[in-house]
From TrEMBL:
Presence of the UniProt keyword Transferase in the record: yes
PANTHER family: SPHINGOSINE KINASE, SPHINGOSINE KINASE RELATED PROTEIN
Species assigned in the record: Pseudonocardia yunnanensis
Family of this protein: Belongs to the diacylglycerol/lipid kinase family.
InterPro entries per UniProt: ATP-NAD_kinase_N, Diacylglycerol_kinase_cat_dom, Lipid_Phosphate_FormReg, NAD/diacylglycerol_kinase_sf, YegS/DAGK_C
Official protein name in the record: Diacylglycerol/lipid kinase family protein
Classification lineage: Bacteria, Bacillati, Actinomycetota, Actinomycetes, Pseudonocardiales
Pfam short name (any one): DAGK_cat
Length: 349
């Protein structure tokens, strides 16, 4: 009998076929192949970290509508708070398995979300809703909510550098994506009231800047890539991953967000005429440097001031600091962009 096992198998085939037919006919999905669709848990999950103070009415509804139209799951909606401007919310999004995290707010919200996403490989999208929106402008992303969400869900991935800063020998490293600075620039950010920014937009920084122009220069020491310190008098020292300012002005013409280095500029005018000369160099996009505006590039920078100076990261005041240790982390953050530029192409200004 053992040699005839295949005969038994052949005899059982009709019975097996009958059983399969019964099971298939009893399946509603099998009766209508068009009814087959992805289960909700199979759809990609977007998360939105939103600053409720910044977003306009109807923003959440528009974001949800775009997600639905593109076949994504309803977004995980996480609002920032005064105590947590976005980092904790982004970490929750990562833990929940989000495929992309949208930062919906100003540059501060973007920086806080990047603090959590840098180094994880989880993509970050931008839905600009602030005064400056400098990173979105640098990357050429749209500022319209619907268009920005479409880019975040369907755009290309671009890996960009992240700046990391340690303040006064502290234990924690903070990230920045656009610029870190100390001196005049940070004083403007610190002295610009939030209510004024809401009322007049970027003009608020101009008003605060005019008030701060009469300040005195201070002595600083700059150490670039571990070389001998460079000593200067300064009004402000800026370290940029991007060189673009409000209004499309380019302070650091060589800066690119994915070149693996940071750009450094020291601005040291003494008088009003000196400030006019600085403005002229910025408008002309000259990067050769002179006594009032000097440029460098480095992978690590240490700024030491003779006295505590106002300091800022991506426009967020972080208080007075005497020492900033800054380094670049190349290609640490995945950004969703409308288009990835060719290698060595300058960032749009």
């Amino acid at each position: 009998m053992s040699g005839d096992w295949w005969v038994l198998v052949l005899a059982a085939l009709p019975v097996l076929a009958l059983l399969v037919a019964v099971v298939v006919r009893s399946s509603p999905a099998a009766a209508d192949p068009e009814s087959l669709s992805a289960e909700p848990e199979d759809r990609p999950l977007p998360a939105v970290v939103a600053n409720p103070i910044r977003i306009e009415p109807g923003t959440r509804r528009r974001i949800e509508s775009v997600c639905a139209s593109l076949g994504w799951a309803p977004p995980l909606w996480l609002e920032t708070t005064v105590e947590d401007p976005g980092t904790g919310q982004a970490r929750i999004a990562i833990e929940r398995g989000a495929d992309v995290v949208l930062a919906c707010g100003g540059d501060g919200t973007v920086r806080a979300v990047a603090q959590a996403l840098a180094g994880t490989g989880v993509a970050m999208g931008l839905v600009p809703a602030g005064t400056g929106n400098l990173l979105a402008r640098t990357l050429g992303n749209p500022d319209n909510v619907t268009a920005a969400v479409r880019v975040a869900l369907t755009g290309d991935d671009r890996k960009i550098d992240v700046g990391r800063v340690r303040v006064d020998d502290g234990d924690e490293e903070h990230v920045f994506l656009v610029m870190a600075g100390t001196g005049f620039d940070a004083a403007i950010m610190e002295s610009t009231p939030e209510a004024l920014k809401v009322r007049v937009g970027p003009l608020a920084y101009v008003i605060s800047g005019l008030r701060a122009m009469r300040g005195r220069r201070t002595r600083v020491s700059l150490t670039l890539d571990g070389d001998q310190p460079v000593r200067r008098r300064t009004r402000t020292v800026l370290v940029g991953n991007s060189g673009t300012l409000l209004g499309g002005l380019v302070l650091m013409p060589r800066a690119t967000v994915d070149d693996g280095v940071l750009d450094v500029v020291n601005i040291a005018p003494k008088t009003l005429a000196g400030w006019v000369a600085v403005a002229g160099r910025v408008i002309s996009r000259r990067g050769d440097g002179n006594a009032r505006v000097e440029h460098w590039q480095a992978r690590s920078i240490v700024i030491e001031a003779e006295a505590p100076q106002p300091s800022q990261l991506d426009g967020d005041p972080i208080g007075d600091a005497t020492r900033l240790e800054i380094r670049v982390e190349p290609a640490a953050l995945v950004m969703r962009v409308a288009d990835v530029p060719p290698a060595d192409a300058p960032d749009p200004g």
